[in-house]
């Protein structure tokens, strides 16, 4: 049986790992750094192994520490869930809701919905985790995530809210200089900007006659890790870029970018709300899913249409 002192030490250990330092964890838990350090050292002595190593810059988990910390997180999360249930979180719309989203998509489509939700639910707080890398819901202690791209088989519950097209965008000035590409291979003759993304790398296209997809080996002038940077570089004429259509939408509407090669676009990319499958779901999570799902579908309704359903921006 785990005693309360060990649970407290586990909580301190998890806080130190999550915050990256003993001092930051001590501030979060409102205890002296020396107290937190002593409790973690006592835990290591009890286990007979070192769990984390400290350098001047960061904390690092040992192999034994990684396994123990994963188990400790499950134990502490289960205790917190039971505490929330006892406190009425499963019967009342209140508490902290942690939502993971891609950076740009979160800003454009999720944040406005979160703001509306907070207005109508004063006892809810939201932590928005914005990253273009998929965050593990359990390790990241997130309640739900908005995921772009095909989902792996898992125990997660997924709700489809829409889809978006991968589009090639070029500035009018670049088209004037190089001409309009007639097929994807022609992109190899003009400069390009690559957004390093798990759902857009490599650049993929579709043969219209057969629907066969193929990858194009692009050698860009510029690599970026954020879609808004790719949009700005394309607007400035640095090169053509491949993005999901919601990212350059404002620049396209303003005439700063044009979509090309629509006939060759790869399959649309799905957008889903996912959450961990649980027999008992906190009411805050159920309310947010019910609130956000129709609004996200409305927000994405004009995206993801096939080439036959829309008027091409440029030919």
**How much of the polypeptide forms β-strand, as a percent range?**
15-25%
Average pLDDT rating:
87
- CATH topology description of the largest domain: D-Maltodextrin-Binding Protein, domain 2
| CATH architecture designation of the largest domain | 3-Layer(aba) Sandwich
| Low-pLDDT stretches | 307-315
Residue share in helices?
Answer: 25-40%
- The N- to C-terminal Cα distance equals 70 Å
Sum up the overall morphology in one term. Answer: elongated
Major sheet details: 5 strands, mixed
Give the CATH H-level superfamily of the largest domain.
Periplasmic binding protein-like II
Gyration radius (Cα, Å) is: 24 Å
Order of SSEs, N→C?
Answer: HHHEEHEHEEEEHEEEEHEHEEH
Q: Which structural category do the helix and sheet elements fall into? A: alpha/beta
Helical segment tally? 9
**DSSP E strands, number:** 14
CATH class of the largest domain: Alpha Beta
Record the strand order, biggest sheet.
4-3-5-14-6
Number of domains: 3
